[in-house]
Batch of 2 targets.
Target 1
Amino acid sequence: MPPTRAGRSVGSIALLVMLTAILTSCSGGGEDDVVRIYTGRHYDLETAFVQFSEETGISVEFLPGSDAELRERIAAEGEETQADIYLTVDAGNLAIATEQGIFSPIDSPVLEAAIPESLRDPDGNWFGLTVRARTLVYHPDRVSATEMPTTYTDLANPEWAGRVCLRDSSNVYTQSLVASLIAHHGEDEALRIVSGWADNAEILNNDILILESIADGLCDVGITNHYYLARLLDDDPDFPVELAWADQDGFGVHVNISGGGVTRYADDPGLAVQLLEWLATEGQSAFVNGNHEYPANPSVEPEPLIASEFGTDFLRDELPASAFGGLNAEAVRLMDEAGYR
Amino acid sequence: MTSVVVDDRPDCEGSPDPVGSSERAGRRVNLDFGDRLAVLSWPGAAWLAAVLVVAPVAFLATSILSPRGDVWRQQWETRLPGELVQTVVLLAGVSIGTLVLGVGLAWLTSAYRFPGSRLFGWLLISPLAMPSYVLGFVTLSVIGFTGPLQGWWRAQLGADAWFPDVRSMGGAIAVFSLVLYPYVYLLTRAALRDQAGAAFEAARTLGASPLEAARRVVLPQLRPAVAAGVAVVMMETLTDFATVQYFDVDTVSVGVFRIWRGTFDRDAASEIATLVLAFALAVIGLERLLRGRARFGEAAGRASGIMPRPLSGRKAMFATGLCTVVFALSFLLPTVQLVVWAIERAGSNNGTPVTGRFLDFLTNSLILATVCAVICAAVAMVVTNASRFGHRRSTSLAARLTAVGYAVPGPVVAIGVLLALVALDGGLERIGLGLPGVVATGSFLGLVYAYSVRFMAPALSAAEAGLEQVSADMTASARTLGHRPSSIMARIHFPLSRTSLATALVLVAVDSLKELPIVLLLRPFGFDTLSVWTFNLASESRFEQAALPALTIVVFALVPVAVLSLSLNARSDAAAAAERGTAPTGEGLL
């Protein structure tokens, strides 16, 4: 028998009820002491947040996603946003979020004491919480001490043709590095460097692949974030790739941050600030160690693997994160012009 | 729900006396009332669907009205020409690949009997469950430069031993062809069974050789289905931006994301995205062209399908071998690799910390996929019927517009829906009907809406291919006999195009299970799905740990695929039985 009219109505009512139930169960609210976070950073968040909740009784809910899309969502949601904090990787993302007016400035002596000036927004819109260095990696058997490159610029020289693996231009880490080259060397010189890279390099689309390609002989040197190598060394202590801090006689190695700020329409900015303060102090280790990152707070020790393998005593580029963050768009256009994929 | 669609078949066939019972008389009254609105309501419904789909896309496309000359010039002088060329090459390559695999395998498994032919008939659908980004990643990990195969190769023949470059256009075309051919395969098989098969048998009876019958009768009849399948394939390829990047292929979609995420310029990115749309329009035009002017409908009666001829000896071995190779490369081997990784990683302490919420992820994925599939199939049914009942030209334009979301990359749809809903919320608030909280953005409804915008096209394609098999004469006869459009839809069009509608349900459900960018952006707090879980791991380059969620997607996407293939088999059995037994009874349907 075909379903009767009444049967169909019952069916559609049931569907409606189900939908409503799902809807309301998801958009609940009103509980107290919850901090909600939209986050583009995904590394080991649960560990840190669980610990925070246990210590303070404040619960943390987080929604992982892509940086750019989450920013669009916060902007579109406006006053109705559920996000109290926007966390993201890369200074470029933080700079543009500030420009879009997503953040409200934080006035917190705790955060200002914990985070060095170069790792936070001058107006207090956002604070860096973890530090990652983007530096040279190489195969010790195939790169002799005499020819060892020491700067990012060296990899643009013709002798490295066909021996370099680099990350693609769609990647935000590459964009920030190129932005810092523009800031330091000016646009013309940066274009020359990136064109040289484009001539020399095999362009790959993730850092792990770059490291494995060096290990397997596709290329001899590359540029990656330090923690990817740490992760591979964690799995296999004999992984045959080593790290060299770039530009130690010049500006220092390019460091980027992951960090966040309190959103403009946060329900309870006080709680949000409390969480950021905790992440910048007591919670630093829980937040950075799982991903082998360096703490943004200089008084916190990095975890043992990177401390022993890579050390802590190296020159960091002091270029403010907000400065190269603002040059991101410039960097993308420059890479397009240089023919750098 | 697919099983319901299949199960109620006897009801529709077994209603020898359609008019007369009191229940039916009662329904007639309702229809008469409804019919007064019908003149307006069929095109109206189609256009409503079109507007709902187009609105979010239009929100973004308005930026093209004030074009950013500097961005276009800069892009045109740098990467855009290369991106255009690569997009065209990729689309052409994948179309040819899926056409050859899809039509070839469908014909092989429908027209011949060889060891395993029935089994392969449905096994060959399974790559539908394999997201292209998963096959892409597995391929690179296993036979890419750093994979074990090339490592072994270098160990044998020296560090500089030649090996084909896997990270290349060729590699991308191969991967897309392997995961996408089922779209062509499915629709071709459905057409062979529902319609073209009968014509083939008729031509054979009239003395045509098998080849001649295939070329002159079957191929022309397959054109609508094949064209629809290839169009779906091209759209999937066009809007992909993850797999192409694995293979270092620089398409226009990649360009859109580089500009959006890199220069933070949403307007400029949406302008470049209109190029993707232009490509999609070209694809739709091409589909119309390929489909040709011809309209084939069942003259009367139900299709009896094709009678498979047995192959023997070398030919049979070759057929079995070919099917085995395609199935192994596209589905079996990558799945085995995922299982191996999942087991390896389960033992390490770096496993995923959220395994406890596995059931949550799974339920969310399944609910979302089911709701979206039902909505898309229902809307597709109404829209395709509207073009038969309403004013043909305007309603088919509406149908084309309804499909437009498929031509827009997922994240662009997501942002469009977000902006549209926020605007709607704002509008409602102004007239005092504000939605509570953030219903507009982070809600299940918003999510379903965005999915429907994005995945209406495969449902439409399938529904249209289904309806095209019902001849206009049959519809006209029913109308002459006094039946209302809604009654014809429910009692003639629906039963006759049921296989195609089941296909529509499956295509949307599977696409929804695999979908990532939309759910990532529009989901409510706490509503995580399997694809979100995969993303969380993959975005940290923890690909091997992502094997478990990826595998789960594959397994659960396989369920609707299996239901569909079983129902297809059941139908061919029924068709064969009908052939052996009584003559097909078309009258029963009226």
Target 2
Amino acid sequence: MNYVKFPYQPIKDDLFMPYAWVRLSFGNTFWDEWALVDSGAEINVIPFSVGVKLGLDWNTSEDGPTIGGSASGATKTVELTVTIGSFTNVSMSFCWLSHDNVRVLLGEQDFFENFAVYFDLQNKEFALFQYAKKQDVE
Amino acid sequence: MSVMQMVESVRELSIAEIEQLQDALEKERLMQLSKIAAKRWAGKTFELCFPSSKDVPVHPFQVFLENQKP
């Protein structure tokens, strides 16, 4: 099975977190960024500034879902292509937030639906396994 | 206009114009997909469980392990 391994990233003191370095693209415009592999997030998220860097237009983008808690605010729904390690050009839906209080999150819908994730904190690494596409297994 | 007719008309374009067209087509594809996603998410509320925005990796560069190609 095709997979990529990433090291847990040191944050502070003894805290390590599963951040992956990803390339987000909208057409020919791309932005490289740390993204947290976050099973606690129901959907994928990008902060406002990342959408702007990708050339997204807030006013013409589709209205997004409601986000609860401290990240609440206006949202848009956008589709981006994502490259993670050797996995290239995977189309995923993102909720584009109207603020920068949250970093790029890879959540349950679209990300965990496409990838099985093996977290190995003791060895400070995690691995992504891409599920076969439906047409590949039919 | 059929796809073949569209391809035929593209033959008149320069490489730079074709690249502009590729960019526009890809953006249009993503916009169409975003409409589908927006319908899927319409009226829903989602929760995010995330760390402080200050908790970011200390290394500004990518570190690869095995089986990765940049």
